[in-house]
Amino acid sequence: MKTGKKINGYIIRSAAVAVLLSSALIAFTSAVNLAARMPRAHAQNNTSPTAPILGNYPDTTLALSDNTTVTPDAPPINTTRITVSTSTSFNGTLEGYPTTGVVRVT
Q1: What is the model's pTM?
Q2: Which of these, 70, 76, 67, lies nearest to 100 by C-alpha position?
Q3: Fewer CB atoms inside 10 A, N or C side of the chain?
């Protein structure tokens, strides 16, 4: 019966090694996938991309049927589009310009 116990011991050790190697493989592939999902720095200046920055807009009041533009104290930085909104009872048009930050109210 010693031979049977030795074989069982080898089977248990082999299973333990297989589990250990599988765990190591899973950990390695997870680390590789995590590194692939991390943001990369820009090649030109080796900096990370920054979030868009908007200037401050003054409070503006208009008389009925007036048109105006509202200009921020500084133009936006790192913007490609701008979204403007107001209350649902507003019956005019709002337009935003991402290069200047100007909002046109008509």
Answers
A1: 0.51
A2: 76
A3: N
